[in-house]
Amino acid sequence: MELQSSWATFFAVVLATVVFLLRAVLLRRRRAYKLPPGPKPWPIIGNLNLISSLPHRSIHEISKRHGPIVQLWFGSCPVVVGSSVEMAKLFLQTNDAVFADRPRTAAGKYTAYDCTDITWSPYGAYWRQARKMCAAELFSARRLESLEHIHHEEVRALLRELHGSGAAGNAVQLRDHLSMAALGVISRMVLGKKYVEKQPAGGGAAMTTPEEFKWMLEELFLMNGVLNIGDFIPWLDWLDLQGYIRRMKNVNRLIHRFLDRVLDEHDERRRLQGDGFVARDMVDILLQLADDPNLDVKLTRNGIKGITQDLVTGGADTSTVTVEWAMSEVLKNPAILAKATEELDTIVGVGRLVTEGDIHAIMKETMRMHPVVPLLVPRMSREDASVGVGLA
Q1: Distance (Å, rounded) from C-alpha 202 to C-alpha 200?
Q2: Is residue 12 in a domain?
Q3: Average pLDDT, stretch 3-17?
Q4: How confident is the model at residue 31 (pLDDT cuts 50, 70, 90)?
Q5: Where would you find the membrane-spanning parts of this chain (predicted)?
C-alpha cells in the first residue's frame, strides 16, 4: 500500500510539472501584447496587497505613480484600470461594444439571481433585450412623465418633514430624510407602493418594516461593490475568508422573499382586473413584457426580480448621496449659497417647486467632484483591443 501511495504521489507530481511546462510553452507562443505599466505583482495574490478597504483611493495612488491606464493583477486575474476622462471615453464610448461583457463574480451569482439582472448579466441576447426594455418601456419619456406626480408628492412631503424637524431649532440629520424620500420615490415608481411607511394599525402583517427595507438595499448595494478574494483566487473561494458570500446569501434570501410577495400582489391585481388591467408601475410593465411570446429570450420570474432589484438599488442610494454632497458644498461656501438663494428667488420664484431642470448644472458639478460610484461595475473584454496606445 505504501508503494502504491508513493507511485501515485510521484505520478501526480510529474503530471503537475508537465501541465505547468505546457502552459508556460503555450504562453510563450501567444501573441506578444504591449501591456500598460503597473506595479510588479506578487505570486498568488498579485497586487491585492496594494488594495485597501477603500479600493478607489488605493487605485488613485497607483495611477498617480503609473499613469492614467494601469495594469494590475488581482490574484490570477489581469485587471486594466482607466483613471482619467480620456480613458473613460476610450473604454465606455469608443470601445464600448468590445468591453460590454461582465466577469462572473460572487455578487452576480448570489445577489443577482445568477446574473439574470442587468448589472451583472453577460453580454448577449438577454442583456441586449433587457437594455432595450429599459430604454423603450421603463425609462421612456412617456413613462417617466406618467410617474412624475410621484416625485412631486414625495418632494412636498420631504419639505414638510424638514420644516417640522427644524421648527424647534434643533439640528436636522439631512441624510435620514433624504434617504427616506428617495426610497419613497423609487419604491412607488418601481413597486407601486411606499415601503418606507409604518404599517397602520389593523392593516395586517407588514411585508417588511421600513428599517429592514432600508437595510436590505444598503447591504445589497455594499455587497455589489466589495472585492471578494474568492473571485480572484478561485481555490480560496470555498473558505469565504471575508464573510462576504455569507452576507450575500443572507441579503438575497431576505430580498428574494420580499420580491416574491411583491410579484404575488401584482399578479393578483392583474388577475382580478382581467382585460381592464392597466400598468401602474414598473413591476406591472415587466410582468406584461414577460408574457410577450415574441421575446428573443424568455423573461423568467427571477429575471423580473433581478431587474426590479437593479431599478430600486440603482436609484435610491445614489440620489441621496448626490443631494447630500451638493448641500454640503453649498453650505461650506457662503458665496455660492448666496448666489443659489438669489437664483431661487429670481428664476424659480415662490409659485412653484424646484424641478430637475433647475438643478441640472449643480448636480453635474456635484457628481464631477464627488462621484457616487468611484469604481464602476467591472467590465470584461470580448476580444483583443488596443486602447490608449501612446498615452501610457
Answers
A1: 6
A2: no
A3: 42
A4: low
A5: 6-26
Domain holding 91, by residue range, is 29-102+379-391
- What's 183's domain CATH number? 1.10.630.10
**Same-domain pairing of 364 and 386:** no
* Residues 220 and 317 placed together within one structural domain of the fold: yes
Residue 189 contacts residue 138 (beta carbons within 8 Å):
no
Q: What is the pLDDT of residue 315?
A: 76
Question: Both 53 and 170 in a single domain?
Answer: no
Checking if the pLDDT of 20 tops 60, the result is no
The reported pLDDT for the residue numbered 283 is 94
Whose grid coordinates read 460572487? 106
- The model's pTM is 0.84
Would the CA dihedral through 300, 306, 308, 310 be positive or negative?
Answer: negative
> CA 57 to CA 374: how far, in whole Å?
9
Over the stretch 181-195, which tens digit does the pLDDT of each residue have?
888 899 999 999 888
Q: Please, are residues 183 and 195 in contact by the beta-carbon 8 Å criterion?
A: yes
**Is residue 50 in some structural domain?**
yes
**What domain count does the chain have?**
2
Q: What average pLDDT is seen over the chain?
A: 85
The residue length of the chain stands at 392
pLDDT band at 4 (very low <50, low <70, confident <90, very high): very low
* pLDDT at 176 (0 to 100): 85
pLDDT of 24 above 80: no
Residues 167 and 304 in one domain: yes
Q: What is the pLDDT of residues 281-336, one digit of tens each?
A: 999 999 999 999 999 999 999 999 999 999 998 877 788 888 889 888 888 989 98
- Of residues 169 and 124, more confidence is placed in 124
